[in-house]
Write a structure and sequence with these properties.
By secondary structure, this protein is mainly beta.
Length: 185
């Protein structure tokens, strides 16, 4: 596998994965929560200072501070945190369609239901989601593989274009927090 060096823009507004924040986390949750610190992968340590919600109570914004002395790779800080989360700079984020494939059949042996094997088709065998990615993905050729942190491996679909980037999940990754919390990986 070939790795490509890239610059990652950083500013005061970033996106994080919704699963990387919990307002009332249980023990052993090492992602972002009110009053806690985590490292932004390849960037700084941030601390959640305030949670903003809409009228229905849904979290819409997190106000955090960052410690400028904790930039990854500088060796200028002795500060340690247990969690590291992925992120993308809002101003530069590139919207992409992500196709999450799962097993086609719910039953390990669909032929055991030869009379009506269609009843064993998994209705969740394809889920389509929206992702915000780094701008370095623009222009990637179909078939190019990427690892999405803690999510899995994805490749650019043959029908992808600069106007509509499409990723297909090829392999999932195990999520240690999903195992602890009882969620599927």
């Amino acid at each position: 596998m070939r790795y490509q060096a890239r610059k990652i823009p950083f500013s005061k507004e970033i996106f994080i994965d919704r699963d990387d924040f919990m307002e009332n986390p249980p023990k052993k949750y090492f992602r972002l929560a009110p009053g806690t610190e985590v490292r932004l992968k390849y960037a700084y340590i941030i601390k959640c200072e305030e949670v903003i919600k809409d009228a229905s109570g849904t979290v819409t914004e997190l106000r955090c501070t960052y410690d400028p002395d904790t930039k990854s790779g500088t060796g200028t800080s002795e500060k340690k945190v247990k969690g590291t989360i992925q992120w993308v700079n809002c101003a530069d984020a590139v919207k992409a369609e992500v196709r999450l494939y799962d097993r086609l059949f719910l039953d390990e042996d669909p032929l055991a239901h030869a009379d009506d094997y269609l009843k064993t088709i998994n209705p969740e065998s394809l889920r389509i989601a929206t992702a915000f990615c780094e701008p370095s993905i623009i222009g990637a050729e179909p078939g190019t593989a990427f690892q999405f942190e803690r999510t899995g491996y994805f490749c650019i679909d043959k029908d992808s274009s600069k106007e509509k980037i499409i990723f297909n999940r090829t392999v999932t990754l195990k999520d240690s927090w999903a195992k602890i919390s009882g969620k599927d990986a």
